[in-house]
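Researcher: I'm preparing a figure for a lab meeting and need a structural model of a single chain. I don't have an experimental structure, so a prediction will have to do for now. The sequence is pasted below. Please return the structure as tokens so I can convert it later.
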Amino acid sequence: MPTYPNPVKRAPNDLPYNQHAEQAVLGSALLTRDALYEVLSSLEEEDFFEGRHQLIYRAIFTLRERGINVDTLTCAEELMNMKELENIGGVEYLQTCCDSMVAYANLQYYIAIVNDQSCLRRLLMTVRNIDKMYQNEEIENVNDFIVKSEEMIKEATEKRRISEFRATKEVAPEVEKIIKTTRELGEDDVTGLNTGYEKLNQKTQGFQRSNLIIIAARPAVGKTALALNFAYRVATRAKTPVGIFSLEMPSELLVRRLIASESYIPLQVLSTGRLNGEERLKLADAAKRVAAAPIYIDDTPGNKLMDIIAKSRKLQAQVPNLGLIIVDYLGLVQTSNKGNRGNDSRQEEVRKISLALKQLSLEMKIPIIALSQLSRDVEKQNRKPQLSDLRDSGSIEQDADVVMLLHREDYGKESKSNPNGAKKFKDLTDDEKKKLSYGQQQQMLADTMPGDASYVDVIIAKNRNGQTGNVPLFFYKAFGRFDTPPKEWEEKMSELTRQLDTTASN
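Model: Understood. Here is the structure written out token by token.
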């Protein structure tokens, strides 16, 4: 491996760079076509420290953009047109760079030197800017200052190496290993993180790592409850830690919901504390199971996007096998440190948030579930939701790998769900049944179940790597629990479907 002199430090900034390495990569680009493509694809103008080297790179880049052959003469002519030839030292300095050319086999080594020095300069300048902020600006919140500083350092260092092509023979064994590992850890042929619901697993193959998953619904339909059910089932059945950012509810209320779901004690009863002896036993058992679940809740008021990113990284460092992050919900996340949006519209802000969460899922290599609201059009038009109903930004649909839309037939119609008064479905006459819509009949059958049950369609409207379609679930509102529909209900629905098919054929 070739050697190179120690980095030269130049006044007044005293920032590091390597003059010889910069000359070598520019000279190589001027002399060979392969080196030209290697340099242009690996470095940018600002990666060079010396102003004259930046000008030479700009001239080379401009020539290539115009489709003109790059060599010493064309570069000199372009610099002359830019009125910069004398400023770089004339044709003589271009020749000095060419004399520093290195063999193509060693070129990547010199490119790495330039890249490393560039990264080090950005890091040092960022640290100095952070110190300047500390010296000159009033710090309203120390945590915000630390989070912002961490983000600035990450941005300064993330372009340390330009990624290169990887042959499939190198990647394929890694993929095979991942599949084998997930298959060993999963259940029912699920290759991702088990959702806890068999029919949902069949559609999604589980929550896949590096995926952004959106759960969207109108308020009070049950999206928070479903997210909590996912968290608890992942934590207890897959034995995988889960992190939850709750921007709407305190951690105590979330844990109370988990206990209600696990104990089958209505939330209303838990809120009053008026429990009988049997319920107290159920409460004690459920509380122990919930306490043992590896679920971590952050309910800090006003958590901002940078807070969520920094805290997620910190949690993963503390809990290396962290498997899932949940954000409840997108509408309450802000990008600004001072609680305002500046010149950004809400649509632009949500675009930044959804993109950042997707990038975070890729960085952490775990699925992230983010909750979102649907527009009022769903209620106004009395229909099932679709992707275009995602509120605030179409970028949510673009960034998400999976989008689940929740639909409850009885939502907003509790007083009208049974148009035949107090009658149950089994007590209706055939004529009365025929007057009901299919959805109304679904819900009336659900009314026969305990726990104030509602039939919920989980509409998988987007699934980048799997199937779309509907997954039926039961939402027991009294307990805040989602479950697979009981066999009794499925049998009755199959019978109802046959009756409707027979009626239609006649």
